[in-house]
Amino acid sequence: MVPKRNSLRIVGGVWRSRRIQFADNPDIRPTPDRVRETLFNWLADKIEGARCLDLFAGSGALGFEAASRGASHVTQVDRNASVVAMLELQKQALQARQVDIVCQDALDYV
Predict the structure, then answer these.
(1) Bridge partner residues of 52 (DSSP)
(2) Contact between 88 and 81 (Cβ < 8 Å)
């Protein structure tokens, strides 16, 4: 199966191998699968039950990966309304109740 343009694969956890779509925006550069896999392998014992903040969420790759791997709560923040709308669609598709999405400048948010 050929991956769709503007989609990525969740690497691990309950949504492992699920594909999520992200907004068609040239500023979005998703974290590659191998980098996410390495990062979350390093953080494996800290993710379960953690509260995570995904600033400049873009594709949502890091936030959805954290939620998939057991984070108790994830907040994704991005200022672009079309990006946030796509994140909301992916949240619904995954039934990711532990994920909140905020449309705001990340630096203002913190």
Answers:
(1) 74
(2) no
